[in-house]
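Below is how a single chain appears once it has passed through the pipeline. First comes the sequence as given, then the structure the pipeline wrote out for it. We keep one example in the README because the format questions we get most often are answered faster by looking than by reading.
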Amino acid sequence: MAVTQVVLVDQTHHIDPTLLHNAALALDSQVTQDLPQFWSGITANVSSAPTLAALPSGAWPVFLVRSLPPGEGGFHLDRHNQPYAKVIASPADDSWTVDASHEIIEMLIDPYGNRMQTSEAIAISGSDVADAAGTFSYLVEGCDPCEANNYAYDIAGIALSDFITPHFYDASVTPGTHYSFKGNIKRPRQLLPGGYISYMQPDGKWGQILWVDPGQPPQYNNLSVAADFRSLREEIHRAMGAELDTAKHQQRRKQGGLPKAVNDRITEHRARRAARPRGHYEEVLRERYRLGKS
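Resulting structure:
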């Protein structure tokens, strides 16, 4: 089976190279060890490229950028119908890795943005979302229902997104079943504060339930989806409009949102990098491994 290469490319030119490398290692661990536990048939690895020119041919790039116009973030298809993503990253905030994790997982689960899954319908019930009569066809987006960064976890001090499992679309609750990798989602089709879910109704109309403002109840959003799209995911994001698109991305990188234990490990990881001047650390390693001067 062919291995998909996902590559982080720092287009800001300001991300700490050590962080970029360690982020790629953590993301690689996520897609080789965590994701295949629930999503079969995915064979991929994650690495980083120091420059755009170093991007391997055929790789799926995730570009780290300083800023983006509304609607430009997240998943895209290039003119050859190959997936790529854009993620805002800043040297002042290491939590961009949650966003990168989100985009990578969704690219691997559904590379072209057209995967659908039929399951029980849902509706807003008070300040929550509950099952309703009938069925919907859901756009499979692996992280959206639990995308807020307060549901993140970490690997070696690198923050990563939680993600749904295929059991998210089960008809009913089964004891001992994981509906998201870290267990933040407790039942099929549960929408967590800060997330959203997109679906097609039996009459062919598209809608969403959004909880992008956790301080407010969830809300419905009717979508005008064009018929001539290449990627349904791209078209859904376009139809959401700039304001909602920006709001959902902010949930992945909101200040103070990470769980305390995750934030503590990220802070420790950052402190270790700052306390380890590159030149001195290289000298220590050269002595340890008897490398001599280059």
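The helical segments are 17-34, 96-109, 232-240, 242-250, 260-274, 278-289.

See the next section for the split statistics.
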